[in-house]
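Reminder to self: tokens first, then the designed residues, so the page reads top to bottom the way the pipeline ran.
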């Protein structure tokens, strides 16, 4: 007789259904796999045999044939172990085959029979929920704990293969074990902690309101990193859809976010990060930092130090809001709708333009440093702001500008105006004609914009960038039309 078990394999962020058919007959003791298993799946036989043995369950005594369908789908990873082990037990009538067929099963086996957490548990649980022939999913207990709030389907979390067997035999549900970890404390670093830098704080507020990317240029110690870390606190908490997207990304790499955490993600990869680390890739085509920052903030400090080809790929992500990675004929797309905050020194030594410290860079070196960031990438960064050194007397004075709660409330109001006017989008997504249509300009504003465009020789892209940012400034001021002061502020967000 042939035993059927539902399981799945992860492709990108999606789980694809896999049906395993298992039969055992008398003969030489061996396992044979058919249906495009990767090496890791083929190795499952050793884990299964040892795990069943350790657990005191009967090991297969004959010739086991495992057929994985659909045959042309590549099956990855160790998550098939538990399904195959239970299937083998069903061929020996240790678990009832009819009950086994009604559950999606996934989990990696340790040699002791313990069930290890898997990548993609959330996507697999959702796959089970979408299949009406299935009652739910039997998954590693630890995986269930991380994904529970995101799925409606019935989850049975198991720590050990014997718990799965008992559940299938008599319906005994395993003790869920330790409670989920407590909700992480909502410590949000406050904008008020940053002394001085009123212009940069204002720029950060504008960026948060319109979803614009930001470039901060200033000497070491000016507070660029402190400011960047305060941007997530200015953004609204993740809604249900965004929290689910972030959970799917975390689950796909086996590093789930806390299910109750609604703070926008913040990622700050080092400039030595590889292309695969930043954009996704690797042997199993996993998402990278741009996707871990999805719906949140990606902070790139020392921007010119990142490899040029990495930055060019980043520019594509900024345009498409997704990362496309390919390897050996396979292509995966990962969401990457992050807000970029980049920081750099004005020159390699860091002190060009400093009021008291001399720049020691030779001019050629300084030019090469600036040129590492292509014009095309700069064009994608709407808000660019120069920071001076911190004035020591600012440390004694009261903080300039709003504290985080006040600023965040201001951002919410400005975003509501944009969403209502722009069909649900933020100003960052406006381009060309729709930007002009959505931005009635006062006469003074139009004159100032034209004069600035002539004086600064603004390109068409730069012109639109000014208009886009001015639209956000007007939204912060709760103005329907754009005034001259909004244009002046937006023109100021250019680093020369
Ligand atoms: Zn210098």
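Designed residues (496 positions):
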């Amino acid at each position: 007789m042939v035993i059927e078990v539902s399981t799945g394999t992860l492709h990108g962020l999606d789980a694809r259904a896999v049906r395993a058919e298992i039969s055992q007959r008398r003969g030489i003791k061996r396992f044979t796999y058919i249906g495009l298993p990767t090496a890791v799946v083929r190795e499952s036989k050793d884990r299964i045999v040892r795990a069943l043995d350790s657990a005191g369950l009967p090991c297969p005594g004959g010739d086991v044939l495992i057929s994985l369908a659909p045959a042309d789908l590549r099956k990855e990873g160790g998550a098939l172990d538990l399904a195959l082990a239970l299937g083998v037990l069903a061929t020996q009538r240790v678990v009832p085959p009819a009950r086994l067929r009604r559950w999606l099963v996934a989990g990696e086996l340790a040699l002791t029979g313990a069930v290890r957490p898997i990548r993609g548990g959330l996507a697999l649980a959702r796959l089970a929920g979408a299949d009406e022939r299935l009652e739910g999913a039997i998954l590693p207990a630890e995986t269930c704990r991380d994904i529970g709030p995101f799925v409606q389907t019935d989850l049975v979390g198991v720590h050990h293969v014997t718990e799965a067997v008992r559940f299938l035999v008599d319906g005994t549900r395993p003790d869920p074990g330790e409670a989920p970890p407590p909700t992480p404390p909502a410590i949000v670093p406050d904008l008020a902690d940053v002394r001085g830098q009123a212009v940069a704080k204002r720029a950060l507020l504008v960026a948060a309101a319109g979803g614009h990317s930001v470039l901060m240029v200033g000497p070491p110690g000016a507070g660029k990193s402190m400011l960047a870390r305060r941007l997530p606190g200015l953004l609204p908490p993740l809604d249900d859809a965004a929290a689910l997207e972030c959970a799917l990304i975390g689950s796909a790499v086996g590093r789930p976010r806390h299910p109750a955490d609604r703070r926008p993600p913040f990622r700050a990869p080092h400039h030595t990060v590889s292309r695969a680390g930043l954009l996704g890739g690797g042997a199993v085509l996993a998402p990278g930092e741009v996707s871990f920052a999805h719906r949140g903030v990606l902070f790139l400090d020392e921007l010119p130090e990142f490899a040029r080809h990495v930055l060019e790929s980043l520019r594509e992500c900024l345009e498409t809001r997704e990362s496309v990675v390919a390897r050996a004929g396979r292509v995966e797309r990962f969401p990457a709708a992050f807000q970029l905050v980049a920081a750099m020194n004005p020159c390699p030594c860091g002190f060009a333009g400093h009021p008291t410290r001399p720049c020691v860079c030779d001019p050629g070196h300084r030019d090469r440093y600036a040129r590492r960031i292509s014009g095309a990438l700069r064009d994608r960064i709407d808000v660019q702001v120069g920071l001076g050194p911190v004035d020591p007397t600012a440390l004694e004075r009261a903080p300039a500008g709003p504290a985080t709660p006040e600023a965040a409330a201001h951002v919410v109001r400005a975003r509501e105006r944009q969403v209502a006017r722009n069909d649900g989008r933020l100003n960052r997504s406006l381009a060309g004609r729709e930007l002009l249509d959505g931005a009635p300009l006062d006469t003074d504003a139009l004159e100032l914009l034209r004069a600035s465009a002539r004086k600064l020789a603004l390109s068409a892209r730069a012109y639109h960038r000014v208009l886009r940012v001015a639209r956000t400034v007007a939204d912060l001021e709760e103005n329907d039309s754009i005034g001259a002061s909004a244009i002046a502020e937006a023109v100021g967000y250019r680093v020369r």
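Residues 347-349, 351-352, 359-361 surround zinc ion (CB under 6 Å).
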